[in-house]
User: What shape does this take?
Amino acid sequence: MQKIKSLMTRQGPKSPQENIPDRSPDEIFRIPNKEELRELRDQPTDPQAEQELINSIEEVYFSSETLDIVKYELEKLPPFLNLKELEEYRDKLKQQQAAVSKKVADLILEKQPSYVKELERVTSLQSNLQLAAIICTNGRRHLNVAKEEFTEASLGLLANQRKRQLLVGLLKSLRTIKTLQRTDVRLSEMLEEEDYPGAIQLCLECQKAASTFKHYSCISELNSKLQDTLEQIEEQLDVALSKTCKHFDNGHYTKVQQAYRLLGKTQTAMDQLHMHFTQAIHNTVFQVVLGYVELCAGNTDTKFQKMQYKDLCTHITPDSYIPCLSDLCKALWEVMLSYHQTMQWHEEHDNEENAPASDGAVVVNTDESNFDRGYVKKKLEHGLSRIWQDVQLKVKTYLLGTDMSNFKYDDFIFVLDIISRLMQVGEEFCGSKSEVLQESIRKQSVNYFKNYHRTRLEELRMFLENETWELCPVKSSFSILQLHEFKFMDQTRSPSVSPSKQSTVAASTVTSLFEQHRDGGNPFEMQADFKEDETEDVLASNGYESDELEKSAYQEYDSDSDVPEELKRDYVDEKTGEGEGEAPPKSVSRETLRSRKRSDYNLNKMNSLILTNTTLNVVRLVGKYMQMMNILKPIAFDVIHCVSQLFDYYLYAVYTFFGRNDAYESTGLGLISSRLRTTLNRIQESLIDLENPPENSGTQPAVEERKEKVPSPHLSQLVNLTSSETLYGLAERVVATESLVFLAEQFEFLQPHLDTMMPAAKKPFLQQFYSQTVSTASELRKPIYWIVAAKAIDYEQMLVIMANVKWDVKEIMSQHNKYVDALVKEFEQFNSRLNEVSKRVRIPLPVSNVLWEHCIRLANRTIVEGFANVKKCSNEGRALMQLDFQQFLMKLEKLTDIRPIPDKEFVETYIKAFYLTENDMERWIKDHREYSTKQLTNLVGVCLGSHINKKSRQKLLAAIDDIDRPKR
Assistant: This one.
C-alpha cells in the first residue's frame, strides 16, 4: 500500500486536461436520449432502498471544490488490505453510482420538455439573428449604391419627401389628439342618454389611440383622464344595474349587460347584481315599514330611521298592520318579478347566441364566453333560493313583530290569505315549500286561534244563556253553503271538474302567476276584493217567510183581476176530451184550488227547518274555522279539535237545559245509552269548568288547564218549562233538540271536507268524534221528551182511580172500568195540546213518535203498577183487567199511528202471570226481571189462596229476594 502511495506522489497531480477523457465535446456534453434514460429509469429498483443508498454517499462527493477522488479513496485504504473487504467496498460504490445515475436519469426525463422548448427558442433566436444580419448587409450595400449613384439634389428631394411624410403623420396625430381632447364631452352626453355600451366602446377606443401617442406629453394627462372617466362609467353602470332590481326594463338591462361585456366583467356584474337584489330587499321592506311607522306616529322622527328593521316592525299598530303587510308583499313581488325577468332575459339571450346564423353557420362561441354564460346561469339559479330566503326572513320578522291574538277574524283570515298567496309565489319562484313562513304563520295562528276559540266559547255560552229557543226564520231551501263563511268550499271544488283535475287547474294557476303579471299588475292587489259581499239570501223575507207563504196560500186567486178567464167559471175542467168510451169530464171548484194551495203551504211548513240563531252562529263559526284550516294546513288538527268542542258544548248545553233529570235511573226505561252517558261525562271532564275560581290559589298548570274550560251554561229565565198549557216548554224543547240534530246533520255533511284537511295521523280522532259524539245527538230526544211525557199525563191520579176498583168480582164484566176512559181522556188532552204546540213549531215525526212512545210506556207501566197494588183479585177480576187493557188499546190506536204499541207485552205478560202454576211462576220470575220486586211480590200475594199455598208463596218470595234485578 505504501508503494502505491509513493508512486502516486512521484507522479504528481495531473493537469485538468489530463483528467479529461479523450472524447469529443459532443460526446462529453451529449444528453442521453429518451430510450437510454427510460432504460435506466425502468430498471426494477426499490425507491426507498435507492434513497437510502444516495443518503449513504459521503458529503465530499457533493462538494463543489476540486477534489481528486482517486487519491481520496486511496488515502482511505487501511495499511493492510483485505481483498474481500475491498470487493465489498467496490460493490457498494457501484450500487451508489447506479442509484445516482438512475436519479439523474429521472431528473433529466422530468426536465426534458423544458429543455426541448428552450432549445427551440434558442434555434428560433439564431434564425432571427441570421435574418437580421442579412438585412443589415443588404442595407449597407444599398447605401453604398446610393452614395455612388445619387446626386445631392436627389438626396434633398428624398429628405423633403421624408419631412413631408413626417409632417402629414404629425398633422394626423394632432387631429387625433384634438378629437381625443373632445371625447369627454361626447362621453358625458352618452352617459346622460344611458348609452353605456357606446360610452365604454368610445372610451376604450380613445385609450387605445392614446397609447399610440403616449410619447406626447399632453397625451399622458389625457390617458389618466380617460381612465378616471372609465371608472366613473363603471360606477354609473353599477347604479344602473341596481335600478333593474325593482323595475326591470328589457332595453335598459340589455345595455347594461353589453357594457359589462365590453369591460370583460360579466361575472363581476352578476356578483354585483345579487348584492343589489339583497340590498333592494332590505331597503324596500325598511322603507315600507318606516313609512307606516312614521305615519302612525304622526312625525318623521329620526329615531325611527336609525332603528333596526326588527325593532321597527314592533312599532306597527294593529290598524296599519294589514295595509303595511299588503304593501310589503307588493314591493317584494316587484323585486322577485325583476329577478324572474332577469333570468328570462339571460335564457333568451343564450338561445339567440346559440342559434344558427342566417347563412346556416352556427355562431362559434369562445371558451371564455361559454364559461361566462355557465357562471351566470349557475349564479342565477343559486340566487333563487337565496333571494326567497331573504324575502321569507323579512316577512317572518314582520309577522312575529306584532301580537295578532286580538285581531278580528276577517282581518286575520286576510293576513293568512296574503301569506298563502306569498307562499304560492315562492313555490313558483324557486320550488320552495316556504318552511320559514309556514312556521312563523303557524306560531301566530296557534296563538291567535287559542285566544279566538276561547272568546268564541265564551260568546257561545252567552248566546246559549240568552237563547229563548225560538225558531230562526230561514228559508225552507236553506243550505249552509249559502252562508258567506262556506263560500270557500265553492271556490275549492267545482262540480264540473273532477278532483284529479282540480289539482291540475290549481297548479296551472300557480305556475302562471309570473306570466300573468309580466306586463304589469300585482297578485297582491287582488286582496282588495278579498272580502266578498256578505249579504246572504238565507233568511225568510222580512223574517216572516211562513206568514207570506200562508198569505199567498189563502189569498191567491181571490182577486178576479189575477185569475185567468177559465178560472172565473164556477167549475174548471181538469180533463177534457170528447170521445166514445171516455169518462165524463172531471171538474174542480175554485175553493178546491185554494185548498190545494193551503195543502202546498202545509207541506212546505212540514219541511221547514228547525234551528235557532245560536245554531246558525255555531255553523258560521265552523265555517270560519274551516276557512282557517283551508288556508293553513299545519294547524288543521288544533282547529278541528276546537270545532269538536263547539259541538260538544252545544250538546252539553241542550242536555243540561232540557234533559238532565235524576229520575231516569228509577224508570228502568234506559233513556240514556252508555255511549251517550260516556260522551256527556267526557265533555264535562274535559270542557266544563264546574269549580268557582279561588282567589290567589292553585298552581300554574291548574290555572292553564282551567283556561281551556268553560263554565256550565244556565238556562234563560225567559224560558218557562213548568207550564202545563205549553206542555212544559215542549216548543222550546223541540227547537233546542231538533236544532242540535240539525247541527249534527251539518257536521255529517262536512265530514268528508274535514277528513281531507285532517292529518293522516290524527284521523282516528275525527272518526271517534263522529262515532261517539255527533251520532249521539238524536239520542238526546229520549231523555228530553221523557220529562214532557212524565208530566203531560196525570199518572198518579190513574193509580188513585185504579185503587178504588174492585177486582174480586164474581162474574165476568162486559163494561170496562172508568179509569180507562179517564186515561184515554188524558191522552186526548195531550194530543190536543200537542196540536196546539205544532202550530207554533213544526213537530217532526221522530219527535212525535218519541213523545207518544214515552207516554204510552209510562201509561202501561202505570197500569201494571195499578194492577200490582191490588189486594184481592178473582179470576173474573183478571178477565176484567184484560178487558180494560184491550179497551185502552183500541181507543189509543185511534189517537196515534205508532205500531206496535210500546210495552204492550209488558202489561199482557203481567196479567197472564196470574194464571201460572207454582212451578211455571218460579221460572217466570227468573225470566222476567223487567218487573220490580214490589210488582212480583204482589203478584205472588194475589195468587195466594187461589192456586198457590203458603209454602209455595214463601218459596217464590225467597226466589224474588235472591234475584239481583238490574234496572231495565
In short: The chain has 39 helices and four strands.
